[in-house]
Write a structure and sequence with these properties.
Blueprint lengths: L2 H25 L12 H33 L2 H8 L3 H25 L1 H11 L14 H18 L7 H13 L12 H4 L2 H7 L15 H6 L22 H6 L7 H4 L6
Bound molecules: zinc ion (2 copies).
Length: 265
């Protein structure tokens, strides 16, 4: 994509998301919050960075990974998979993706090396749809790679899942929004912002690792949904405030005092 096209895509996406989610955040706020809350500009830089630079890099790495897998997987395996009805293949891909992203996400919270990158996302102290974009590009490679891995391995055409992939992306943004809709037990099936808000609880160990449906959280005992919002969001370890500082943070040698900060997450 050319630079003017990327700028246009970023602008259109921003407008689309803002026009859809700002009114919801205004009418059904999960907590009282100004629109231009603290760190809004940092999150805007993450948004722009994703559209103008990192999105393309992540996509290129994924394409490379996909071709590499195509080269090493036996043709007989692919043929066996392709011999199944398409709906069964789609169900396998969706369930495997949910399973992988659930456990992959738990690992991001348990393995110090992965947490270095994932902690950037969790450093947001104010949640809204824009804060969803605060994500280190290498954290995105990990997450998007895991989500797409089953389709890559099974050889399922991604085009057939394009709608679902777009929905996953949009849903990931929605669950960060400062919204609490009275949907009752429906949240057991489709998830909801309040579940992910608890995942961002600063006094962590709050579960909710799933991406869309909380099915995996329910299965593996990590579903949490108190009827109020967490007291605070963020991380308890020191974290740079600036965009550039956060991009570089995972590569910084941790100070001795930081090494002991671990299981609060
Ligand atoms: Zn997390
Ligand atoms: Zn999040």
């Amino acid at each position: 994509m050319t630079v003017p096209n990327s700028i246009l895509a970023a602008g259109i996406s921003f407008l689309f998301l803002a026009l859809m989610l700002w009114p919801l955040e205004k009418v059904f706020p999960a907590r009282k919050q100004r629109l231009l809350r603290p760190d809004w500009w940092t999150d805007l830089l993450f948004f722009l960075g994703q559209y103008l630079l990192w999105g393309g890099v992540v996509f290129a790495i994924l394409q490379y990974f996909r071709h590499w897998l195509d080269g090493i997987l036996p043709a007989a395996f692919r043929a066996a998979v392709a011999g199944q009805p398409w709906w069964l293949q789609a169900a396998e891909v969706v369930l495997l993706s949910d399973f992988l992203i659930y456990w992959g996400h738990r690992l991001q919270h348990r393995v110090p090396f992965l947490w270095r990158f994932h902690s950037i996302h969790h450093s947001a102290e104010h949640l809204d749809w824009l804060a969803a974009h605060r994500e280190h590009p290498l954290d995105s490679v990990y997450t998007v790679g895991l989500i797409n891995l089953p389709a890559f391995v099974l050889g399922f055409p991604l085009e057939m899942l394009a709608g679902l992939l777009a929905f996953r992306g949009l849903w990931a943004i929605y669950i960060h929004s400062n919204v609490r809709l009275p949907i009752g037990p429906l949240r057991w099936f489709i998830g909801a912002p309040e579940l992910h808000h608890w995942h961002h609880d600063k006094a962590r160990d709050a579960g909710n690792y799933a991406n869309i449906s909380p099915l995996m959280d329910l299965l593996f005992g990590t579903y949490r949904c108190p009827d109020h919002e967490p007291e605070a969001f963020g991380v308890s370890e020191p974290m740079p405030k600036s965009y550039l500082g956060q991009l570089l943070h995972p590569f910084r040698r941790p100070a001795k005092s930081e090494k002991s900060v671990s299981d609060s997450r």
